[in-house]
Design goal:
- The protein is an alpha/beta fold.
- The chain has two domains: 117 residues, Rossmann fold, CATH 3.40.50; 123 residues, Rossmann fold (3-Layer(aba) Sandwich), CATH 3.40.50.
- The protein is built from ten helices and ten strands.
- The strands form two sheets. The chain has a five-stranded parallel β-sheet with strand order 2-1-8-9-10, sandwiched between helices. Strands 3-7-6-4-5 form a five-stranded mixed β-sheet.
- Helix 6 links the parallel strand 6 and strand 7.
- Helix 1 crosses helix 10.
- The longest helix has 20 residues.
- The chain is elongated.
- The termini are far apart.
């Protein structure tokens, strides 16, 4: 089976021959500071991309990823559930924390299809030496997975969904309606970081945060909770980039007065392109050295 071909979309990547790769003119974010709210483990490539585009990064994780201990009993139940025909990884963290657990039940993993929800997840699987059989088109979410032909004819198949605790139920529910036997392997949980907010709010008041990126509704909720009333006032006046229409609609409930842009997909390049677009008509308030 041929390994899936794709590119990791860094903005200054010059060795990419993939048709999906897009170039971003350098320095289009020069003079702007961007608040990046991704969990620390997933923020590095986006931060590098923003820097390559001339911007400065204020790293402010609003979600902490904590591994969950998976008891031997849970692995045993999966083992006795029968051969797994398809495994779906919901995130790169699902790969990071799920693969070691799956080694305990590898005898059930014979000729299974491996499905990644998006490019970052596919990249993590590739790094782990696993062949990715199925990858949806943008916007890389449950809806995109469910639209795939490979996930329509699933009657009688055993599908394992590897995810974090408390994830969306849409995928599992729809696959069950299509006749699949669905099992879950929850291998991590999300938590709100405990950190002092004063430095970030001071930067904001000095005009040193010009846009905010968020990549989940949970991230929006955590950011609002962490910022408090004073920070929320600043957030409402700051341009935003989100990665889905669901997030955009949710953001409108906060009465954001600044522009909100939706990235075409959840990739780093798409987020940076949306940042350039949402900041395009603005002048940097502070010229950062």
């Amino acid at each position: 089976m041929a390994r899936l071909k794709y590119c990791r979309l860094y903005t200054n990547r010059s060795d990419c021959n993939c048709d999906e790769g897009k170039s971003i003119d350098t320095l289009q974010l020069k003079g702007f500071s961007i608040l990046v709210t991704r969990p620390e483990q997933q923020a590095d490539s986006l931060c590098k991309g923003i820097t390559a585009a001339g911007g400065q990064v204020v790293s402010f994780p609003v979600i902490e990823i904590e591994p969950l201990p998976v008891e031997a009993e849970a692995a045993g139940k999966l083992q006795h559930a029968g051969t797994v025909d398809m495994v779906i990884f919901i995130s790169a963290n699902a790969v990071r924390y799920g693969l070691p657990v799956m080694q305990q039940i590898k005898s059930a993993m014979v000729d299974m299809q491996v499905v990644a929800i998006g490019k970052a997840t596919a990249s993590a699987l590739d790094d782990a030496g696993m062949v990715v059989d199925v990858l949806p088109e943008a916007p890389y979410n449950s809806e995109a997975l469910l639209a795939l032909a490979e996930l329509h004819d699933v009657a009688g198949k055993h599908i394992l969904i590897v995810r974090g605790k408390g994830g969306r139920e849409l995928l599992g529910e729809q696959l069950t309606k299509r006749g699949a036997q669905v099992s879950y392997l929850e291998v991590y949980k999300r938590a709100i970081p405990d950190r002092n907010m004063d430095d970030v709010i001071d930067k904001w008041r000095r005009g040193e945060i010009n846009a905010v990126t968020t990549t989940s509704i949970e991230g929006i909720d955590n950011l609002v909770q962490m910022l408090g009333e004073a920070g929320l006032f600043l957030l409402k006046q700051t341009p935003q980039v989100v990665i889905s229409k669901r997030m955009y609609d949710y953001m409108q409930k906060l009465a954001i007065s600044a522009p909100v842009a939706i990235a075409d997909e959840a990739s780093d390049n798409a987020i940076i392109e949306a940042l350039i677009k949402v900041l395009g008509d603005q002048e940097p308030e502070v010229e950062h050295e």
